[in-house]
Amino acid sequence: MSSLALVCGCLSIATGVWLGQCLFLRASQQYRLRLTEQARAELSDLFVFVDTTHLWPTLVCVSVGASLLLWLLTQSIVFAIGVGGASFVLPRILLKRAVRKRQQRFDWQLPELLLSLSGALRAGSGLSVALKHIAQQASPPLSQEFGLVLREQRMGVELPLALNHLYQRMPSESVELVTTMLIVGTRSGASLADLLERLCTNLRARQHLERKIDVMTTQGKMQAWVMGALPIVLLLVLGQIDPLSVHLLHSTSVGQAVLATVCILECLGVFALRRILAIHV
């Protein structure tokens, strides 16, 4: 009877391991495809055209190497697994941050574009000609995006459709206002120069208000960074004062469970502070 129970237990464990392996392989394959596609799309939005087929093997090598190195240094399997898992998430965070920063730079350039475009229209230039000269003299990402709009026009795409493509690539409220203004102005035949000057004034007032809000919330954001880094700094200080006690956190199961709990609470705290203060990291 005991032999039969042992065989059934072994079969159950083997079946569970096999099912877990299948689920893990399927999930990793789906994540690989999603990560590669997202990286290709976001890099193309940044006007960086590289082959992303080698991204996943590179991430695997970096994850395994970092995990082994941390395990050799700390003898903590929890930290090793945590760093290995973070290695797969970090590229997506960095890409999203780069796209968001580029979007912000583009929005800050829009008032100067509108002012220059209004002056060119008052001087008698056409809209396409004025956009061409402004795009050639502007700095990225404004020159890149409006250069692509002009190239689409040369390919036969109408200006309203090319501006809609611009809004799809740079989906912000400021870009929506500018593209809508240009489309409506070209179709209605109204005084587009006056409308662009008014929109430029409104965008500058809005950006001034956003900067004022950023300045007023700087102290709260810095407090969030300090509170988030305090447990890590405290752990390093205690490691210098009492290394034997800190070593127990890495070498015992109870200590590793405490460290895992602290990491989870840190992540929850960062998420809550980001939601409260709208911090983009």
Structure notes:
The protein is mostly helical. It folds into three domains: 1-53; 103-216, Up-down Bundle (Receptor-associated Protein); 217-281. Helices cover 87% and strands 0% of the residues. The chain contains eleven helices and no strands. It has helices spanning 2-45, 55-74, 77-122, 127-137, 142-154, 159-169, 173-188, 192-216, 218-241, 243-251, 253-277.
Which short descriptors sum up this protein?
11 helices; Receptor-associated Protein; mainly alpha; single chain; 281 residues
- Assembly classification: single chain
Our count of domains comes out at 3
How many helix segments?
11
CATH first level of the largest domain: which class? Mainly Alpha
Please identify, by name, the CATH architecture of the largest domain.
Up-down Bundle
Largest sheet: none
The geometry reads as elongated
Summary?
By secondary structure, this protein is mainly alpha-helical. It contains eleven helices and no strands.
Topology (elements, then pairings):
Elements: H1 2-45, H2 55-74, H3 77-122, H4 127-137, H5 142-154, H6 159-169, H7 173-188, H8 192-216, H9 218-241, H10 243-251, H11 253-277
